Amino acid sequence: MTATTASVRKVPRPRADALRNRERIVTAAQEMFVEHGPDVPLDEIARRAGVGNATVYRNFPDRDALVREVVCTVMDRTAEAAEQALAETGDAFAALEHFVHTAADERISALCPMVSSTFDQHHPDLEASRRRIEQLVEEVMGRAAAAGQLRPDVGVGDLLIVVAQLSRPPAGTDCVRGDRFVHRHLQLFLDGLRAPAHSTLPGPAVSIAELRDC
């Protein structure tokens, strides 16, 4: 056995209970950031996760690290939903619909705007997750367009803007009541994306580059 091999084998693997605690913390943080905003006390997050404060700080040394992990986790799950949509071999527009509804369930649109000012938005992990989603959504929409099912005058930015707006609770309502309308209104929007278009949209399609410049 070489010294290199021996050293690799000595690297401890995270214990299963430690991984479960980390997952519980991230899930609890996501829920509370959506419900109460990014300034929710970390001890409240620990309480909902069913762990001690020390466990939270052992996994995430500061609030920024926890916020970044929550955002990247949600974005990665949303990207996985897009990958599943691309793997579907049936109706291309139905795959797009499935992705949009799944993304709304992740609450990515409600989460990201609230926490965007609390940490470095150009962190490599966040940039990688963002690029992955943008590329996959473009592929999902491109397949529906190639099948002649998606109106040609919409861009990825159009989709992301509307999903962000419609899957966020209306002002003055709590998250539970607002959630009742999310999928209904998203479906109304999706019906408007179908080709042939029944109206002419004002202005050009919104691209990812333009969306980032807003």
From TrEMBL:
<dbReference type="GO" id="GO:0003700">
    <property type="term" value="F:DNA-binding transcription factor activity"/>
</dbReference>
<dbReference type="GO" id="GO:0000976">
    <property type="term" value="F:transcription cis-regulatory region binding"/>
</dbReference>
<keyword id="KW-0804">Transcription</keyword>
<dbReference type="InterPro" id="IPR050109">
    <property type="entry name" value="HTH-type_TetR-like_transc_reg"/>
</dbReference>
<dbReference type="Pfam" id="PF00440">
    <property type="entry name" value="TetR_N"/>
</dbReference>
<dbReference type="InterPro" id="IPR009057">
    <property type="entry name" value="Homeodomain-like_sf"/>
</dbReference>
<feature type="DNA-binding region" description="H-T-H motif">
    <location>
        <begin position="41"/>
        <end position="60"/>
    </location>
</feature>
<feature type="domain" description="HTH tetR-type">
    <location>
        <begin position="19"/>
        <end position="78"/>
    </location>
</feature>
<dbReference type="InterPro" id="IPR001647">
    <property type="entry name" value="HTH_TetR"/>
</dbReference>
<keyword id="KW-0805">Transcription regulation</keyword>
<protein>
    <submittedName>
        <fullName>TetR/AcrR family transcriptional regulator</fullName>
    </submittedName>
</protein>
<dbReference type="InterPro" id="IPR036271">
    <property type="entry name" value="Tet_transcr_reg_TetR-rel_C_sf"/>
</dbReference>
<dbReference type="Pfam" id="PF21597">
    <property type="entry name" value="TetR_C_43"/>
</dbReference>
<dbReference type="InterPro" id="IPR049445">
    <property type="entry name" value="TetR_SbtR-like_C"/>
</dbReference>
<keyword id="KW-0238">DNA-binding</keyword>
